[in-house]
């Protein structure tokens, strides 16, 4: 089945000197019936046949703004005054059309024809608000922006028209020379236009929850599945990891999936991460693949298969799978690097303990030698002193005996 674009988004700007600028300002204060008669006179896309913008065809809803779905007379006049101030300050006016294939709106449940037909105007207005906020943020237009929009019904394509100005352009817009005059640059960057359309389409189908879930699976759950190491008890897995470790560079700082050093190892890394996720986190991986398929189909449905943006539908899944491989690949390498650092730290700790023990033994050996020598010296000193003592005692005894004998002889001679 070939899809044509469900949504067409186009944006242009007109300068303050363009006669359509004043007509657009006058358009603000008119009621819906009157505005329907002058659509072509102010609209930058009046000549765009693809958008089919014509006077008196279908009907227009009341104007809406960023925070109002309906404006009373006073609010219309305030809005008109804001546009007049912007014109005086030479702000460009940006006009955007969001055009739907009515069949697409039926498919997503926002539109029905017939006697009980309906259009979910609130959903369309809210999507327009999100897209306009995206444009304001991307172009950094500040907080003096004024914009208004209306929904235009006709038999072929339902449209949303918006127009926007900046009341104080000198603070946010650059100037350029055009036809020898200094004017504010009003061109909308292509990336901003694509972002507006993508944001608008995601809001129409409320794709935000699915996109958030894809991000959660990719960046948290599947990534965490590598770190939790449920696979660490699998001998075959550990063997393959060990083989990969043997092939990795010695410098762990290069263990990054996108590094050139990993180029030849990426197939091995991808094989291991895919095996881990499939065997231990299969349900999360299946959910991830299902959401990718739904988002891919959404892009084709919204942009059409033949549009440049429609390639998103063809490449989205591949790009997200590539992102997943990189994310979980880095997670695996990080886990291996942490293990390597722990092992190295443990080895260094063991080596340090051995070194300390050897130093202690060496110190003990030296101390023992010192103590042994000292003891020997002490013994030698003590030994010499004792001998002297004995000699002295013997000498003193001999002397006493000699003196005693002399005394006896003297007494004998006396008598």
UniProtKB/TrEMBL annotation:
Pfam families: MobL. It comes from the Bacteria. InterPro entries: MobL, MobP2. This is MobP2 family relaxase. It comes from Enterococcus gallinarum.
């Amino acid at each position: 089945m070939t899809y044509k674009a469900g949504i067409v988004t186009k944006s242009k700007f007109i300068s303050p000197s363009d006669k359509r600028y004043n007509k657009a300002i006058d358009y603000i204060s008119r009621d819906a019936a009157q505005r329907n008669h002058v659509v072509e006179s102010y609209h930058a896309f009046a000549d765009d046949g693809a958008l089919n913008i014509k006077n008196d065809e279908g009907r227009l809803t009341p104007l809406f703004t960023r925070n109002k779905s309906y404006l009373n007379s006073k609010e219309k006049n305030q809005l008109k005054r804001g546009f007049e101030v912007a014109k005086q300050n030479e702000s460009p006016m940006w006009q955007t059309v969001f055009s739907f294939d009515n069949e697409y709106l039926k498919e997503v449940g926002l539109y029905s024809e017939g006697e009980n037909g309906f259009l979910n105007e609130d959903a369309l207005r809210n999507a327009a608000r999100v897209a306009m906020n995206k444009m304001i943020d991307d172009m950094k237009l500040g907080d003096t922006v004024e914009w208004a929009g209306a929904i235009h019904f006709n038999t072929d394509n339902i449209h949303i028209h918006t127009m926007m100005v900046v009341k104080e352009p000198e603070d946010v817009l650059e100037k350029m020379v055009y036809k020898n005059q200094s004017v504010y640059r009003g061109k909308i960057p292509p990336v901003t236009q694509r972002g507006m359309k993508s944001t608008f389409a995601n809001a129409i189908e409320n794709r935000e929850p699915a996109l958030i879930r894809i991000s959660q699976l990719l960046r948290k759950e599947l990534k965490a599945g590598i770190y939790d190491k449920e696979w660490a008890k699998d001998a075959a897995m550990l063997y393959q990891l060990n083989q990969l470790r043997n092939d990795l560079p010695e410098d762990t700082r290069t263990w990054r999936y996108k590094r050139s050093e990993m180029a030849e190892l990426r197939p091995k890394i991808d094989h291991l991460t895919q095996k881990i996720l499939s065997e231990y986190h299969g349900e999360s991986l299946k959910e991830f693949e299902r959401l990718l398929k739904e988002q891919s189909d959404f892009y084709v449905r919204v942009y059409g298969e033949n549009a440049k943006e429609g390639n998103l539908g063809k490449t989205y899944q591949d790009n997200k799978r590539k992102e997943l491989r990189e994310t979980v690949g880095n997670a695996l390498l990080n886990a291996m690097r942490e293990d390597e650092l722990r092992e190295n730290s443990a080895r260094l700790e063991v080596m340090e303990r051995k070194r300390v023990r050897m130093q202690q033994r060496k110190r003990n050996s030296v101390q023992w030698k010192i103590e042994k020598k000292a003891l020997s010296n002490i013994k030698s000193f003590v030994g010499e002193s004792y001998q002297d003592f004995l000699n002295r005692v013997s000498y003193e005894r001999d002397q006493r005996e000699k003196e005693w004998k002399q005394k006896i002889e003297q007494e004998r001679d006396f008598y």
